[in-house]
Design goal:
The complex is a heterodimer of chains A (157) and B (292). Chain A is of the alpha+beta class. Chain A has two domains: 77 residues, Ubiquitin-like (UB roll), CATH 3.10.20; 73 residues, DNA polymerase, domain 1 (Orthogonal Bundle), CATH 1.10.150. Chain A has six helices and five strands, in the order ββαβββααααα. In chain B, 32% of the residues lie in helices and 26% in strands. The model of chain B has no long low-confidence stretch (mean pLDDT 96). Classes of the chains: A alpha+beta (157), B alpha+beta (292). Chains A and B meet through strand 4, helix 4 and helix 5 of A and strand 1, helix 2 and helix 6 of B.
Chain lengths: 157, 292
């Protein structure tokens, strides 16, 4: 199937098999390997990307379904500087160890902060409830997101 | 794992989708949001020969109120149920329930039509359809069928939807001034499948229930309305009456057992939900602690 979409702002045209999911398309066809593949059935959240401004599971979406869409991956958010403060907060708070879940965590965290600039710790937990981390025990991740949200609010006059 | 190979067809209209379903029969599977279908395909639990993608059918989108009826298009996403002012005003139970459906990234893709057609016994939205007296609107080659929600769900992942029919919308009577609703579920982790849950809709007049529908889910092979609710209609609700009605509830429910909970535990949770629902709907918090 021919598909045409935007990935991190760039037009991409490709031919793909219907069975190819969006995560594998990004990783193997476009070499955007920041989108991780964990469980491949929508449980772990490691493959979270943005499609038309909404976060989705890239393993539960076919590449052919992304035809005509605008996809943003962790590479796009990182290169544009949109989440540099969140990334710094994750580093400062030791909110990652192996790093496997981190791209998905950052995607979900940025999605929350766009909707709710002053989330409570419970709201942070709830928004990240679909993202597994097997290293940190989550507290450091919640700390980092809370710290980044505080800093953003202080920087807005 | 990855899904096995399949043929893919992107439907351009409802009629086109129906034509594809009619041609491919059992081999075809409808792809809406894909949040239940794709996991099942990736795990190779199912391997459809043909995927009919209805994602582009804008005629199946949208939420509208006409007179006293709220119509929700099949492709309406869970995230839209949460945000839509029409739904928050006219079917607040549904907006409340949608918050318990999985996680944000899944709510951005999953659709109400997909959830209902999939008919997972632990899903929130099918139970809401029972509580809200919804009509499920389906289309097939021979035209439209309108099915009361109480007749639609027939078992685990089973409905009365024929293989050549498409669920196009649901219609609900809008909430009245005297309407009250309650939704709660017990799950290991927010967004996980419920161990036991209850969606309830009532009309409360002068402190009495004029109507009460208690739709339990994750307690059997399909969502079900509790007949015990009838005992509380147009009477003064007392702790003693709640105890009697709880006993009736225990007799009618046959909770299943699985790795998450025993049948007895599910029965207990159903009773807890029963009392909490009555107390919340009547705004009488003291009733939540009524003896079993």
């Amino acid at each position: 199937m021919p598909i045409s979409l935007r990935v991190n702002g760039e037009r991409v045209n490709a031919h793909v098999l219907p069975r190819l999911n969006l995560a594998d398309f990004l990783r193997e066809h476009l070499q955007l390997t920041g989108t991780h593949v964990g469980c491949e059935h929508g449980v772990c959240g490691a493959c979270t990307v943005r499609v038309d401004d909404d976060i989705v599971r890239a393993c539960l979406m076919l590449a052919v379904q992304a035809h005509g869409a605008s996809v943003q991956t962790i590479e796009g958010l990182s290169d544009s500087g949109e989440i540099s403060d969140l990334q710094a907060a994750f580093r400062d708070r030791n909110a990652l160890q192996c790093g496997y879940c981190t791209p998905g965590m950052l995607m979900a965290a940025q999605d929350l902060l766009k909707q709710q600039p002053a989330p409570s710790r419970d709201e942070i937990r709830e928004h990240l409830s679909g993202n597994y981390c097997r290293c940190t025990g989550y507290h450091a991740i919640i700390d980092a997101i809370e710290a980044a949200a505080d800093a953003r609010r202080r920087s807005v006059p | 794992m990855k899904a096995s190979a399949f043929a893919y067809a992107r439907a351009t209209s409802v009629d086109h989708a129906l034509q594809l379903l009619s041609v491919h029969g059992e081999a075809a599977k409808v792809l809406s949001g894909g949040q239940s279908l794709m996991p099942a395909m990736n795990l190779r639990l199912i391997s459809p020969g043909v995927i009919v993608d209805i994602g582009d059918l804008s005629e199946l989108r949208g939420v509208a109120v006409r007179e006293d009826v709220l119509r929700i298009g099949a492709l309406t996403r869970h995230a839209e149920l949460l945000r839509s002012s029409e739904i928050i005003t006219n079917a607040p139970l549904l907006a409340g329930a949608a918050a318990h459906v999985a996680h944000p990234a899944i709510r951005n893709r999953g659709t109400i039509g997909g959830s209902l057609a999939h008919a997972d016994p632990a899903a929130e939205l099918p139970a809401c359809m029972l509580a809200l007296e919804a009509t499920i609107v389906v289309r097939g080659g021979h035209g439209e069928r309108r099915i009361p929600a109480t007749d639609f769900f027939t078992g685990i992942f089973e409905t009365t939807l024929a293989i050549d029919e498409l669920l196009v919308a649901v219609e609900l009577p809008i909430a009245r001034k005297t309407s009250a609703h309650f939704f709660h579920e017990f799950a290991r982790r927010h967004g996980d499948y419920a161990i036991a849950g209850l969606a309830a809709q009532a009309i409360v007049e002068g402190g009495f229930f004029a109507e009460l529908r208690l739709a339990y889910f994750a307690l059997g092979d399909r969502p079900a309305l509790a007949a015990a609710a009838a005992r509380l209609i147009n009477v003064a609700v007392t702790p003693a009456l709640i105890s009697e009605a709880s006993a009736t509830l225990a007799e009618e429910l046959e909770p299943h057992e699985d790795q998450q909970a025993s049948s007895a535990m599910r029965g207990h949770l159903a009773n807890v939900l029963f009392k909490r629902a009555i107390a919340a709907l009547l705004r009488r918090p003291e009733l939540a602690g009524a003896a079993a």
